[in-house]
């Protein structure tokens, strides 16, 4: 039995609330159970210097956790003067995931920055950020199209992410913090709406996991992603 009493293939309650930021071109407050992440998409008419004159745009992400997103206060990374390796890894993952479904040529020489700020952390913050970040990005692109800045949408597909793991010997979907901290295996899957894999991160926390367990986690992830993409579609309808 999982601590949350959920079935092995059951997501936590997921909510995607759009338009939560007054000033951002796109925004979404995403909730996976007790994990809450505010995602905002901001348009910049300039691209990074290495892309100038290329005719291509760019989608990137920044990620951070508020000091009391966890049970004990964390020092702001800005106060420390540098980002942690974990923060840089996660924001690069979010950016890669969103670019995977964006036609950067169709976007033109513009940059969209998706900021993902964790309000409450209870496991799966990076997967929630990718799922909510896509909604914020979609709203930003809709904002641009309404102002005739784009003739067609550069978004080619949905993308969402979910965690899986082996907990108490059983593959399970969407780990909360209690499960994540005790899981024998921890994995994250980033998948498009059409079912293509963008990224798979999996590591054994104790005993190595088997190929059969990896296949079982992937099957669980696909079911979870199907549900998340349905929720994305309903959110932007």
Automatic annotation (TrEMBL):
Binding positions (phosphate): 86, 124-126
Family matches, as InterPro entries: ExoRNase_PH_dom1, ExoRNase_PH_dom2, ExoRNase_PH_dom2_sf, PNPase/RNase_PH_dom_sf, Ribosomal_Su5_D2-typ_SF, RNase_PH, RNase_PH_bac-type, RNase_PH_CS
Keyword tRNA-binding: yes
One GO molecular-function entry: tRNA nucleotidyltransferase activity
Keywords: Nucleotidyltransferase, RNA-binding, rRNA processing, Transferase, tRNA processing, tRNA-binding
Coiled-coil ranges per UniProt: none
Recorded family membership: Belongs to the RNase PH family.
Assembly: Homohexameric ring arranged as a trimer of dimers.
Function (record text): Phosphorolytic 3'-5' exoribonuclease that plays an important role in tRNA 3'-end maturation. Removes nucleotide residues following the 3'-CCA terminus of tRNAs; can also add nucleotides to the ends of RNA molecules by using nucleoside diphosphates as substrates, but this may not be physiologically important. Probably plays a role in initiation of 16S rRNA degradation (leading to ribosome degradation) during starvation.
Protein name, entry field: Ribonuclease PH
Gene name of the encoded protein: rph
């Amino acid at each position: 039995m999982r601590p949350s009493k959920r079935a092995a293939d059951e997501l936590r309650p997921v909510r995607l609330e759009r338009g939560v930021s007054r000033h951002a071109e796109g925004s979404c407050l995403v909730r996976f159970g007790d994990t809450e992440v505010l995602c905002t998409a901001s348009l910049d008419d300039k691209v990074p210097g290495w892309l100038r004159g290329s005719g291509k745009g760019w989608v990137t992400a920044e990620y951070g956790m508020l000091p009391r997103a966890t049970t004990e206060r964390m020092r702001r990374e800005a106060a420390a003067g540098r980002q942690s390796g974990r923060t840089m890894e996660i924001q690069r993952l979010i950016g890669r995931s969103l670019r995977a479904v964006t036609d950067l040529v169709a976007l033109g020489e513009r940059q969209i920055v998706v900021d993902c700020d964790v309000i409450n952390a209870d496991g799966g913050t990076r997967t929630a950020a990718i799922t909510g970040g896509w909604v914020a990005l979609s709203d930003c692109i809709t904002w641009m199209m309404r102002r005739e800045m784009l003739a067609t949408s550069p978004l080619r597909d949905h993308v969402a992410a979910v965690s899986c793991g082996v907990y108490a010997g059983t593959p399970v979907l969407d780990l909360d913090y209690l499960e994540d901290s005790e899981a024998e295996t921890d994995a994250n899957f980033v998948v498009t709406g059409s079912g293509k894999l963008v990224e798979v991160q999996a590591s054994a926390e104790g005993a190595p996991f088997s190929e059969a367990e990896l296949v079982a986690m992937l099957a669980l992830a696909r079911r979870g992603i199907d549900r998340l993409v349905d929720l994305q579609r309903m959110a932007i309808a």
